[in-house]
Amino acid sequence: MKRKLGTNERVVWLSTQxxxxxxVNVAHLSNVLDEHVLRKALDLLPQRHPLxxxxxxxxxxxxxxxxxxxxxxxxRTEVRCSDDHWYDEAEKEINSxxxxxxxxxxxxxxxxxxKTSDILVTFHHIIGxxxxxxxxxxxxxxxxGQITQGIIPVVEPFPERPPMEDLLPARGMDxxxxxxxxIGKQARTILVLRPRKLPKDGEAPKEECIAHIxxxxxxxxxxxNLVTKCREESTTVHGALCAALLKxxxxxxxxxxxxxxxxxxxxxxxxxxxQFLNPPVGEEVGFFVSLxxxxxxxxxxxxxxxLARTARDEVYKSIEKxxxxxxxxxxxxxxxxxxxxxxxxxxxxxxxxAALLVTNLGRLTIPEEYGxxxxxxFHMALADTSVPEHFTASVVTYRDELTINFSYxxxxxxxxxxxxxxxx
Length: 424
Fold this sequence. Notes:
six-stranded mixed beta sheet
């Protein structure tokens, strides 16, 4: 593979020069996974997902993916010390940069215990999104399960893909009208709504900013109760989660500013574009995600379920209008090629002044059993030290348990205030 980065990928690349956008996927197995088996499975994976064997190359003013002379996917094995050992390793992984000009842009940690194993797969965001992590982990376990049983795996490769914007559906004049509409909406949001950001607790050079994770799990019973209540209230789990974060953010801003008026808060929701692309993209590793940005005025007296319904409706309306496509088409105009990493992230923060980022992968349907291997739990977490004002929530429902990994950047947001957001 040797192709130019698309606009979406280039913006991600520049952002990562200002801070980490790594994300980690964590799989908890109720079995012991042999390191040599995992090594063999990792060596096969790039045959299926081409971006797993790439590095970044600069030719003149162009950034390219190049698969020449890329080392094998790094594998680090540690003795599993406790059920929480993954947490320290995950924080280490999301804060550690990749050797981008050497590659690859993915790495793996195996925590091997006496009876259980944990696998951590960390991506540079330029080659993958949340669902990429799900598909990679599934394929990795499938290969490892076959190798464990003595079966010679047959790897079915996915094609090399062009940049995502080359696969966007044609929009014609209708697209121009909707683009103008989105620009107008965003201008109104900035000038009229004037969304607030979370209060800053401190500042530091980018190399001293650290992403932290707060791990929360709802039991199967709690998850089912939440789903049932959301249906009764004519909203979704995503709407309820966004409402909870909006209420908590507004309360924190009120506490710091000592003002009780309604607080305007914006949030970003990620949208998987695979099914919308032309041709449609399958269960592949790649950056096939966009954002829709919505906002609300939130007061302490705002009723929670009213806010949950409004949050859901606003996200749905934005998607129906195609704002997830327009967001990508505007990137080239809003962030020119000559932009520096610092100027890009500052410009992004001013044009899209959102306090919150919610990635909800929904209810996963990947298998639990892979030959002798059993996938007990799966979740993910994202670092965003490139825009340290963001408070993020990475949400996964697997085996009827909802897991949320909140992440924040210190010292921009203190541990105390981050925990307040989660507890509220």
